[in-house]
Amino acid sequence: MGLYILFRDVRSPVNRLFFFMSLCMSLWFLPSIYLYSTTDHTVAIECIRYASVGIMLFVPAVLHFSLLVSREKGLLMYYLLYLPFIIIALINIFEPVFFSRIYMADGYWHFIPNFESFTHKIYSFLALGYVLYAILILFRSHSQTKSNRKKRQLLIIVTSLLMWVVIITSEEILLPAFITDFTFGLAPITFIIAMAGMAYSILKYRFLEYPLSLAGLDVINNIEETVILLDADLRVDVINRRALNLLCSDAKAVHRKKFTDLIDEKEKIQSEISAILEGRHYSHAAMFHFTAPSPRHLMNATFSSIKDDMGDSVGILIIARETRDNEFIVKYHISNREMTVILEILSGLTNGEIAEKLCISELTVKSHITSIYNKLDITNRVRLLELLKQYHIAP
């Protein structure tokens, strides 16, 4: 299962982490098979010693998984989560942490928990704290997200983790502490419950992914306009040949890059796309420059939301075409500053807002506009818009 999910999307950090958790389970499962097939006490102790490492690393991986799912930032923090459990795992190799004694009775191994061990207490405290914190993070993310798909994903994972915590706490702590004084050591099997919830979320709801790449690339490449598909993180998922030519790049270099890294108007476009993803707009028209070698191309673009079958926004479709701004500039002798003012007018800004944005006086803005009108032989913004549309500068 771990390999299958990994190869569904090797680039996905969630899929890679699930594969790591599968390895942890295997590290516990393989020695455990040998444990339950032997009657040798020394061999049984060695099996427990090494099988426990997988369980110890599984716990911080659960919290790591929850942080990834909730899109919490901090790569260094992710790896620091494992440090105390790695230390405990090393201690466990020389001195068993989980059990103070094991013995065979009625053909089954019985395990006496090492409740008196300081290391065991530290491990139990950390493990319970990590898992409860993971559940808390998932609950918070569930209440904050507007995505129906993600709500279902998080609910499945939270349910499986709660079942896992209740069962493992009962079998490993409550049962031996108050009833039997021993455990059969089967609680790690319940880790499969947590894994099953995560696997179901990944396979059923295509966790943190949406196959935008399934769009017909051959068809998109034959479209004359620039076509780009972005995922929910605004990373390039599909880009057609026309766009690559304008960027003077190739698909491998651009794929998975942030779209805002490819354009000059980063903050403005970021804000407009975010409004679409948040559902405040379905589509938006805007202009931007590709940060490509000269000549830089001014693009007249439409940004539209891509929705899945649950109505959630999973990406952005960009369809753009180059303006004929160079032809316009040369024909009418428009200066760089006048062109900047024209683009701000297209953005819908007033004279005062343009002055504030360009750090010039409103009188200077009016002077630029008068010069533009004289060069174009027009008298108002309506005629300016009509003329700009002829050169594909206005949407």
Mean pLDDT: 81
Q: Any idea of the CATH topology of the largest domain?
A: Rhopdopsin 7-helix transmembrane proteins
CATH architecture of the largest domain: Up-down Bundle
Distance between the termini: 49 Å
Structural class, by secondary structure, is alpha+beta
CATH C-level of the largest domain: Mainly Alpha
Helix content: 55-70%
Unreliable segments of 5+ consecutive residues: 207-215
Strand arrangement, major sheet = 4-3-7-6-5
The proportion of strand residues reads: 5-15%
Rg measurement, Å:
30 Å
Description:
- It is a single chain.
- This protein is of the alpha+beta class.
- It has three domains: 2-205, Rhopdopsin 7-helix transmembrane proteins, CATH 1.20.1070; 212-322, Beta-Lactamase (2-Layer Sandwich); 327-390, Winged helix-like DNA-binding domain superfamily/Winged helix DNA-binding domain (Arc Repressor Mutant, subunit A, Orthogonal Bundle).
- 58% of the residues lie in helices and 13% in strands.
- The chain has 17 helices and seven strands.
- Strand 3 and strand 4 (236-239) form a beta hairpin.
- Helix 15 crosses helix 16 (362-376).
- The chain is elongated.
- The two termini are 49 Å apart.
- The model is unreliable at 207-215 (pLDDT under 50).
